[in-house]
Amino acid sequence: MPINSPDFSKNLERFTGFAGAYDSFRPAPPDALASLIQRYSGLGAIGRVVDLGSGTGLSSRYWAGRATEVVGIEPTPDMRNEAAAKTRDSNVRYQPGFSHATGLPDRSADVVSCSQALHWMKPEGTFAEARRILRPGGVFSANDYDWPPTVGSWEAEAAYEACMRAVRRLEKERRTGEGLQQWEKGGHLGRMQASGCFRHTKEAVLHHVDRGNADRLVGVLLSQGNVMGLFKSGLTEAELGIDALREVAQRTLGPGLRDWFWNARVRMGIV
Fold it and tell me: What is the strand order of the sheet 46-52 is part of?
């Protein structure tokens, strides 16, 4: 499928215009992910990693010191440009493409990874492409974090969740999500199993810790595509409840950094 396929035009629009916030506030993949994948691959060292839906490069840069070469595949120019600007690792590069049409050679990767993006990808085509470009025994891995993270303040988490309820309601009312290609996350493993592309599939839950404060919690919400879509439709932060979230976050979390705890759901398939 051509890179400018109209089937995904709404998805590309969804992730245009906030790459800087996305890169600043989103979490990197879990620290333990690479070692887990390496065990399943049976390799002493990982050669090429292909990172599907690489976005601003957070998930690609994660692999820079863990693999010989990293190729980020990202269809949205805004995200891809941000990735190129932020990446200093000489073994990481980015190119346009879709998860089901990477343009890479057969059997050219040890790992195909996908971080917080599989729900935006055509399942059957993505799994078939992963099987095609992976070497025998290679690993396909898709990880998704539960939102929001555990930040140590029930009030801040409740305010975040209230914002997201308002966002979902307004998105439905304003129809800003119409035309998006999207698949439910809870069905990832079942779709992988049904595809016939993998000899073995496995779901695991990994624990990840990083640090955040009040500003980051608001920033995480502002990095959501549905929030930015509502801004593009003309709504304000007050109408989305973000002003209230900011007040609660500043009062309960403040400016100091503290540990945040993330739960990552990892779905793996072995070719």
Answer: 92-95, 67-73, 46-52, 109-115, 134-145, 258-270, 200-212
